[in-house]
Design brief:
Layout: H1 2-23, H2 32-37, E1 44-45, H3 47-50, E2 52-59, H4 61-82, E3 87-93, E4 96-101, H5 106-116, E5 121-128, E6 131-137, H6 140-165, E7 171-175, E8 179-185, H7 190-198, E9 203-207, H8 210-215, E10 225-233, E11 240-248, E12 253-254, E13 258-265, E14 274-280, H9 282-294, E15 300-304, E16 307-310, E17 322-325, H10 331-343, E18 350-358, H11 360-413, E19 417-418, H12 420-449, H13 454-486, H14 490-524
Parallel strand pairs: 1-19, 10-16
Antiparallel strand pairs: 2-8, 2-18, 3-4, 4-6, 5-6, 7-8, 9-12, 9-15, 10-11, 13-14, 14-17, 15-16
Helix pairs in contact: 1-11, 1-14, 6-7, 6-10, 11-12, 11-14, 12-13, 12-14, 13-14
Length: 531
């Protein structure tokens, strides 16, 4: 019996010491050799406690499908030209690509589609005089898969951007079919973060149509041209202006072939101006080399999200796959642009559905009220247990204190994020701990009323209360697990707190308090029990 008690006390003490060690960084600032060998991470505070941004973003799936069908159409056009398919026109209607060909070219067209475009399915073939109008479309199941993949890609892209932006403990999860929930605790510049997250970052290199630009808005724009705005900023005043510029619609190179983007200072012809240096992969370097060699003397526009940042003249062939973007950037603007280019473009624009900024004052107020509520609940419970159950109530309070210390230790060890619902979960855990002790003590009282000895009453009380305590904790654990699986953000925080709390409570309320009772009974052998 004595040996068993020692082992149980050692187990309780080990858990207690480990929990205290992990809780220390939340109380004192560890430095020197202590920081090297002891845990140094504090419990992270969630958005509702620390303040920050809550964003609900929606991916523009309509624009996404337009982009995909346009790319398929351009690729099909290039493939038909390459494989010698003679066609008289190619257009699109919704998600359907329509190709006008002569009947003798139909088999050639289907061979191209079958060999190079497995995601296109032949639809109706309608005669139009001497021509055939053939419909090609993407099947519905593939469209659904493309949309789902696009949301996952957007999720990963946004996560990469935020990681490079330097926000700790962000929450980035998919919500519904095409929405993404983003929570950024402690973010200092909400507007900058919003611009960084929402920028589509579709980078393209296009030739400037000098003749059409010179004619201005009064002249007719060729069908294969487009009018965009070129951005310029006065480096002294910081005033930004835009002017129309006519570009060739066809992009010669895109950001998909980028491998790196970094801030650079100075360089030929730009003095000390801040720029963003680009580096392409081997395929991008080959294309860039070819484009610059074939267009010496022409201007090549660098376009990001349909805005022209610069349009320098190609003075010579550029090998090595390196380029740069200038545009009167500030250091923060250049840094953010480099981040979005490195992280990759979003597959389609995103729309902000909900934007809530929580100030740090509100967060601190939530912390103060949450801590006060938990402390008051704990104090009232401690007083009640001592008054109602006397010395046995003190044992219950010791078990309750162990419960809280173990719970905070686990939160620190797993670097969990504490939220306001998480504090509510701690309060509920306290209540469940008290409930367990009440069940046990009432059973012990019943056993004592039946005339049993103190030892028999304690053993019988714990044995008979165990089934009810176990059942209540298991049902609560199942509920918490469901909330964790299907909940988001703060709901998950509440659920994880409840899960840890229930497991620890089973240990402290039953194992811990029973160990203390067994030690008292073995050492003092009381004939009565203060309960």
């Amino acid at each position: 019996m004595i040996k068993s008690l020692k082992l149980r006390f050692i187990l309780i003490l080990v858990f207690f010491v480990v929990s205290i060690v992990y809780c220390l960084p939340n109380v004192v600032e560890l430095g020197g050799v202590w920081k090297k060998y002891l845990p140094s991470d504090k419990i992270h505070l969630g958005l509702d406690l620390k303040g920050g941004m809550h964003l609900l973003l929606e991916l523009d799936t309509g624009k996404l499908m337009d982009n995909i069908i346009d790319r398929r159409m351009n690729s099909l056009k290039d493939a038909m030209i390459s494989d010698g398919v003679r066609f008289l026109g190619i257009d699109r209607k919704g998600s359907t690509i329509i190709v006008s060909i002569r009947p003798d070219q139909k088999e050639k067209l289907f061979n191209v589609v079958g060999n190079k475009f497995s995601d296109l399915k032949a639809g109706a073939s309608k005669p139009e005089g001497d021509l055939l109008s053939i419909e090609l479309l993407v099947p519905e199941n593939q469209l659904a898969s493309i949309k789902d993949n696009a949301v996952n890609q957007a999720l990963e892209t946004i996560r990469n951007r935020i990681d490079q932006f330097g926000v700790s403990e962000p929450v980035i999860v998919k919500q519904g079919e095409n929405q993404i929930l983003v929570q950024l605790p402690g973010v200092k510049d909400p507007q900058r973060a919003l611009e960084l997250i929402g920028k589509t970052a579709q980078l393209e290199f296009k030739l400037v149509d000098e003749d059409a630009t010179a004619r201005g808005e009064s002249g007719a724009i060729p069908a294969d041209d487009e009018v965009l705005k070129i951005r310029s900023k006065n480096r002294e005043t910081g005033v930004e202006t835009t002017a129309p510029i006519v570009l060739k619609r066809q992009a010669l190179l895109t950001g998909e072939l980028l491998t790196d983007a970094r801030i650079s200072m100075g360089g030929r012809d730009i003095g000390s101006e801040i720029s963003v240096g680009l580096e392409f992969n081997s395929e991008g370097a080959r294309i860039f080399d070819k484009v610059t060699a074939e267009n010496v003397g022409k201007r090549l526009a660098i376009v990001l999200d349909n805005t022209v940042y610069s349009a320098p003249q190609i003075r010579e062939r550029i090998s090595g796959g390196k380029a740069s973007i200038t545009g009167g950037f500030t250091m923060d603007e250049a840094k953010d642009l480099a981040i979005v280019l490195r992280a990759g473009a979003l597959p389609a624009p995103v729309r902000v559905v909900q934007n809530i900024t929580i100030g740090p004052t509100l967060g601190q107020d939530s912390i103060n009220k949450g801590v006060l509520a938990t402390l008051l609940a704990s104090i009232f419970v401690i007083i009640f247990m001592v008054i109602y159950y006397r010395y046995s109530g003190i044992i219950a309070n010791v078990a309750l204190a162990l419960n809280l210390i173990y719970l905070l230790g686990i939160f620190s060890a797993f670097k969990a994020t504490m939220t306001l619902p998480g504090i509510a979960g701690i309060a509920l855990t306290i209540g469940m701990g008290v409930d367990s002790n009440v069940l046990i003590f009432e059973r012990i009282r019943e056993e004592l009323r039946l005339g049993k000895t103190v030892r028999a009453a304690v053993d019988g009380g714990y044995a008979k209360a165990w089934v009810a305590i176990f059942d209540s904790h298991i049902t609560t654990l199942i509920t918490a697990a469901v909330l964790f699986i299907f909940g988001t953000g703060p709901i998950k925080g509440f659920a994880i707190t409840l899960i840890f709390g229930m497991i620890i409570n089973l240990f402290t309320a039953v194992f811990g308090s029973k160990t203390i009772f067994d030690w008292i009974l073995a050492k003092y052998k009381p004939r009565t029990l203060s309960i």
